[in-house]
Amino acid sequence: MIAAGEGHYYGGKVKLDNVSGHYRPEGESAQSAATVAFEKAGFTVSNYTEKVFDFKLGRWVKKQ
Predict the structure, then answer these.
(1) Count of CA atoms in the C-beta half-sphere (13 A) of 11
(2) Angle CA 40–19–30, to nearest 5
(3) Got the DSSP string for 24-55?
(4) What is the SS3 assignment for 11?
(5) Considering only CA atoms, which of 46, 47, 52, 44 is closest in space to residue 20?
(6) Residue ranges per structural domain of the chain
């Protein structure tokens, strides 16, 4: 598995992140794989956000 996460479609563009449950893809290779896959399918990717799970907050947050 190279990439996994969520994609949100807004106003003709896709925003991607790496939130996927148990599998935690990260880094440039995960971002590139996700972006290329959506662009090959004809979408414009406007943003990729890498996130980590904050156990104290109990939710995903943007990686610092």
Answers:
(1) 2
(2) 45
(3) ---HHHHHHHHHHHHHHTTPEEEEEE-EEEET
(4) coil
(5) 52
(6) 6-62
At residue 18, the 3 state secondary structure works out as coil
The overall pTM is greater than 0.85: no
pLDDT digits (tens, 9 = 90+) for 15-49: 999 888 777 778 888 889 999 999 999 999 998 99
In angstroms, rounded to a whole number, what is the distance separating the alpha carbons of residues 47 and 11?
13
Sorted by sequence, the CB contacts under 8 Å of residue 14 that are 6+ apart come out as 7, 8, 38, 43, 44, 45, 46
- Residue 23 contacts residue 1 (beta carbons within 8 Å): yes
